[in-house]
Design the sequence.
């Protein structure tokens, strides 16, 4: 049945079933995403030279800057779409997708056009050995061509999550990541293309996923009344709101990326072995993050719907119930890392020095899910409510606290670097909690 009325539907109570209906598919898709990083690391890690793992880590770091600076195309689209859904506004649901895809294509083409200055600036700021930097540049020169497709995937994924269509989001992530893993293994192991093969596999997979995502979105839009309305798409007030939300998320994302880039570059300054060991350990963090994202995405969709429907009780219930589930998942992840961590490290790298450093620092990884879960959940709540100015301010304060902590703890070497990361998680949690009561009061009871 098509949505034909522009009227907010009667708010439904938040249930555990509703939470898990979003979270479980996202977590399943999340398994494939860190597995991609594991495959990339494992494939190049079969070469007994840590420079190859380090090159993929540095190359991926550059694209964390280049692409996740525009992560608002996922997060902002989710919040705006969820609120339009909660308000019963099918025209705005359609327009939210159109604006996001338009921005994605324009920005993606711009990144390809500016690839040379971006590369020169990025690798001037990142410190690694000449061999690692040379290999990382090879990776960059190929992967940058995926920019329009990558950003389109962010927009389409955010739109489906905002509509609580988690199964479609699962399908898109599986298409992207399974295609990527298969192509990476083929290009590297069969064709012996090294880091260039990893990059080429990623480009091909992004293009395939974008095509599938747009086709599914087109099909899904047939369930909504009306058609494309250019005036609505380009409405000045809607564009101003979209720009404000996206600007704040972009600043917040850049600050977060700076923190993780600082972590990576400070590890690189301690040598290729430390850089490679931290890259291996960050695969654990990524695995935990994608599981925790399942509950954070649930919070985004359910909180956004509650805000769109002006339903404070729904907001509070969504925040409370998703957080309890997230805490349970974080505890489970920590237990699994404690039990299986040493074996996974040995599987990911054959270099003895890298293995030794990774084993020594493994306890930091075991505790990370429990330290990070609260920040993840609060991010999801604030994204769903599109309270992005508060997110921006909280992240900027957290970045400053993190850098101060690193300066104090740097004499401890790599252990001090990991301790500073824990400080970052705590700072993000405390600063967002400061704004949380005002967020709740802003929604009608």
Sequence:
């Amino acid at each position: 049945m098509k949505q034909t009325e522009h009227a907010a539907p009667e708010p439904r109570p938040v249930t555990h079933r509703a939470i898990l209906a979003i979270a479980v598919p996202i977590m399943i898709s999340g398994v494939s995403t860190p597995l991609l990083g594991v495959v990339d690391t494992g494939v190049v890690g079969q070469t007994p030279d840590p420079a190859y793992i380090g090159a993929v880590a540095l190359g991926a770091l550059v694209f964390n800057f280049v692409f996740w600076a525009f992560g608002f195309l996922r997060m902002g689209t989710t919040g705006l779409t969820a609120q339009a859904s909660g308000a019963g506004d099918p025209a705005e649901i359609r327009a939210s997708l159109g604006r996001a895809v338009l921005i994605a294509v324009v920005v993606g083409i711009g990144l390809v056009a500016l690839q040379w200055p971006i590369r020169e600036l990025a690798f001037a700021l990142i410190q690694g050995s000449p061999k690692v930097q040379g290999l990382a540049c090879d990776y960059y020169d190929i992967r940058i061509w995926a920019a329009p497709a990558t950003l389109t995937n962010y927009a389409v994924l955010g739109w489906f999550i905002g509509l609580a269509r988690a199964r479609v989001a699962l399908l898109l992530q599986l298409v992207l990541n399974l295609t990527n893993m298969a192509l990476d293994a083929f290009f590297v192991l069969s064709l012996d293309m090294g880091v260039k093969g990893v990059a080429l596999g990623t480009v091909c997979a992004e293009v395939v996923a974008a095509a599938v995502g747009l086709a599914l979105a087109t099909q899904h839009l047939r369930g909504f009344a009306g058609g494309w309305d250019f005036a609505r798409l380009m409405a000045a007030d809607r564009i101003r709101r979209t720009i404000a939300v996206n600007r704040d998320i972009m600043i917040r994302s850049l600050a977060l990326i700076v923190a993780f880039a600082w972590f990576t570059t400070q590890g690189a300054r301690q040598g290729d072995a430390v850089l490679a060991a931290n890259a291996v350990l960050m695969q654990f963090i990524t695995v935990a993050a994608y599981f925790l994202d399942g509950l954070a995405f649930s919070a985004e969709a359910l909180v956004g719907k509650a805000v769109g429907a002006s339903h404070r009780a729904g907001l509070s219930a969504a925040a409370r119930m998703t957080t309890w589930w997230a805490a349970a998942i974080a505890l489970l992840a920590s237990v699994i890392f404690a039990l299986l961590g040493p074996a996974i490290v040995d599987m990911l790298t054959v270099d003895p020095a890298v293995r030794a450093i990774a084993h020594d620092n493994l306890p930091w990884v075991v505790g990370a899910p429990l330290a990070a879960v609260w920040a993840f959940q609060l991010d999801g709540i604030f994204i769903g409510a599109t309270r992005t100015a508060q997110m921006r301010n909280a992240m900027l304060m957290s970045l400053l606290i993190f850098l101060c902590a690193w300066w104090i703890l740097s004499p401890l070497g790599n252990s001090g670097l990991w301790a500073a990361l824990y400080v970052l998680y705590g700072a993000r949690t405390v600063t967002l909690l400061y704004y949380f009561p005002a967020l709740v009061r802003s929604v009608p009871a």
